[in-house]
């Protein structure tokens, strides 16, 4: 349920807003990270392959959200719209490859090709839900940040396995995300309750999905029970 303390005058103090935002994202992130980093290599490969399509779809979706921020120019002052657009592109630089040598989709693609994996997953039902053009901006950002944490944790787990140290300390750009939401909140273009609800929904959905993958693979490894003798 939304926390009423996160709305109204309380959240308009930027320092408190940042603290609450970090608290929200880190609490769920740590739980998901614990699961991902404790699973077996086979399970990690299965989850990585399932996440691959989602990472690909996310890149194109990010561009549509950036356009949505640019289109706010008719609603809010130009410099404010430009600030939103700039911060969003900066925060998503890892996905689009603007400032880095490799994108999420590419990294996931390379990591799964080190070994064969038979698992497949269609993520098309999840991505449009998060980035739907009619989705309130608060829910878009909540789902977007949750998905970023999920993909980063998968990348970090693969990086540890492949000894790619560049990814090990990579985290979401909290400053940019906070700046974006603070601007949108100030202009009454989102509610923090929407951000929180969508973030929690995606984190719960993906965590359940990972645990289901682990259970499926575990059941395949379980030898059949011996048949009773006649």
Report the uncertain regions. Answer: 1-11
**Given the helix and strand composition, which structural class is it?**
mainly alpha
Look at the structure and give the mean pLDDT.
81
Morphology:
globular
Task: Write down how many β-strands occur, each being a DSSP E stretch of 2 or more residues.
Answer: 0
Radius of gyration: 19 Å
* Beta-strand proportion: under 5%
Q: How far apart lie the N and C ends?
A: 56 Å
List strands and helices in order, with pairings.
Elements: H1 14-38, H2 41-70, H3 78-91, H4 93-96, H5 104-112, H6 127-131, H7 137-162, H8 174-186, H9 192-221
Helix pairs in contact: 1-7, 1-8, 1-9, 2-3, 2-5, 2-7, 2-9, 3-8, 5-7, 7-9
Describe this structure in words.
With 230 residues, the protein is mainly alpha-helical. It has two domains: 10-114, no CATH class; 128-218, no CATH class. 68% of the residues lie in helices and 0% in strands. It has helices at residues 14-38, 41-70, 78-91, 93-96, 104-112, 127-131, 137-162, 174-186, 192-221. The radius of gyration is 19 Å and the shape is globular. The N and C termini lie far apart (56 Å).
């Amino acid at each position: 349920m939304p926390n009423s303390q996160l709305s109204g005058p309380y959240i308009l103090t930027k320092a408190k807003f940042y603290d609450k935002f970090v608290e929200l994202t880190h609490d769920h992130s740590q739980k998901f990270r614990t699961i991902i980093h404790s699973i077996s290599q086979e399970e990690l490969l299965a989850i990585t392959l399932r996440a691959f399509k989602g990472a690909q779809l996310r890149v194109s979706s990010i561009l549509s959200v950036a356009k949505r921020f640019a289109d706010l120019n008719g609603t809010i002052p130009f410099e404010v719209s430009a600030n939103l657009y700039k911060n969003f592109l900066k925060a998503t630089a890892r996905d689009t490859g603007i400032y880095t040598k490799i994108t999420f989709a590419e990294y996931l693609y390379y990591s799964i090709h080190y070994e064969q994996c038979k698992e497949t997953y269609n993520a098309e039902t999840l991505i449009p839900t998060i980035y739907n053009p009619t989705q309130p901006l608060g829910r878009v950002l909540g789902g977007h940040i949750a998905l970023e944490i999920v993909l980063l944790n998968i990348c970090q787990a693969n990086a540890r396995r492949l000894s790619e140290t560049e990814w090990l300390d990579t985290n979401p750009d909290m400053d940019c995300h906070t700046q974006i939401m603070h601007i949108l909140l100030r202009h009454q273009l989102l509610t923090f309750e929407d951000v929180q609800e969508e973030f929690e929904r995606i984190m719960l959905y993906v965590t359940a999905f990972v645990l289901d993958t682990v259970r499926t693979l575990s059941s395949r490894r379980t030898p059949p029970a011996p048949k009773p003798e006649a």
